Amino acid sequence: xxxxxxxxxxxxxxxxxxxxxxxxxxxxxxxxxxxxxxxxxxxxxxxxxxxxxxxxxxxxxxxxxxxxxxxxxxxxxxxxxxxxxxxxxxxxxxxxxxxxxxxxxxxxxxxxxxxxxxxxxxxxxxxxxxxxxxxxxxxxxxxxxxxxxxxxxxxxxxxxxxxxxxxxxxxxxxxxxxxxxxxxxxxxxxxxxxxxxxxxxxxxxxxxxxxxxxxxxxxxxxxxxxxxxxxxxxxxxxxxxxxxxxxxxxxxxxxxxxxxxxxxxxxxxxxxxxxxxxxxxxxxxxxxxxxxxxxxxxxxxxxxxxxxxxxxxxxxxxxxxxxxxxxxxxxxxxxxxxxxxxxxxxxxxxxxxxxxxxxxxxxxxxx
Length: 367
Ligand SMILES: *[C@@H]1O[C@H](CO)[C@@H](O)[C@H](O)[C@H]1NC(C)=O
Description:
Pfam families: Ig_3 (PF13927). This protein has one helix and 28 strands. The chain is mainly β. It has four domains: 96 residues, Immunoglobulins (Immunoglobulin-like); 81 residues, Immunoglobulins (Immunoglobulin-like), CATH 2.60.40.10; 84 residues, Immunoglobulin-like, CATH 2.60.40.10; 73 residues, Immunoglobulin-like, CATH 2.60.40. Strands 2, 4, 7, 8, 10, 12 and 13 form a seven-stranded mixed β-sheet that branches. A four-stranded antiparallel β-sheet has the order 1-3-6-5, with no helix packed on it. The structure holds 2-acetamido-2-deoxy-beta-D-glucopyranose. 2-acetamido-2-deoxy-beta-D-glucopyranose binds next to strand 22 and strand 23.
């Protein structure tokens, strides 16, 4: 081997060692951090002729950002308080006399799922009404979304796009109401949002203003029934074990019976019905006959000192209270008369022997 050859080989070796584009490595190649964390990429020249100049650029050619700092000799790129806009590729570029070398590190941002449910509850829903519940989700990687009803693990059928899941709920009865949970899951974690659906008003509740009514034959009777519930209940009236009296008028919560007779006594039912069920309230009606009284004799003759016996008979609904009075308002002689009995006596105490006319009055409850 002559000197020339040796020189050529040396030159080739020297060229291999010294006259080379920079070759780079970066650590880590990829990083996944949470928002607010700090991350550094280390760029190292593994071979290539010195001197080498290092610089960093973003893959998307955007500026590095004000929270990005370069370390000694530009070898270390540090991102403090990472935010979403920092996500992406970072190119470490090395330049020497022979040319350039680049290597790219990638930053991805890990975001635990977050859930937002609209409308926020609690929601009052009328029976039969349908509501739409929206769940929007953020997070990286993109979480899966599902709706469940609290107390069950079965996923409900919802319409999902990338970041939202909307659920239609139709509340027909109390069991359909409850708390609905939107669950977002990724390997970064699980998040839940919930909304409570309450059945508004709901089950019908009937009540009557008076549960016991008394009337006298021939009178009119009005019954009042009030019903709460949602949807607004319909009210119907009926009579226990009998049809409603012929002369009745029913209008919503009001039932009017005209010209009642004794046969109209009994139990009346107010029935409030809506989609959720029915509720009954009862009115007890008692129809009394008006009492009328007769004395057996129109005229009685009595001598002074004799006992005078007058009898009063009355018809009507019991109990009947009897009262004797004297025509003209004169007082009854003391001790005379047992007002509570059907037979009443008075003593013909007057000495002038004149006839006294007495009226047998009557009273019955309801008059
Ligand atoms: C009240 O209404 C409900 C539903 O329509 C019915 O099932 C029930 O028998 C009714 N009650 C009376 C006493 O009519």
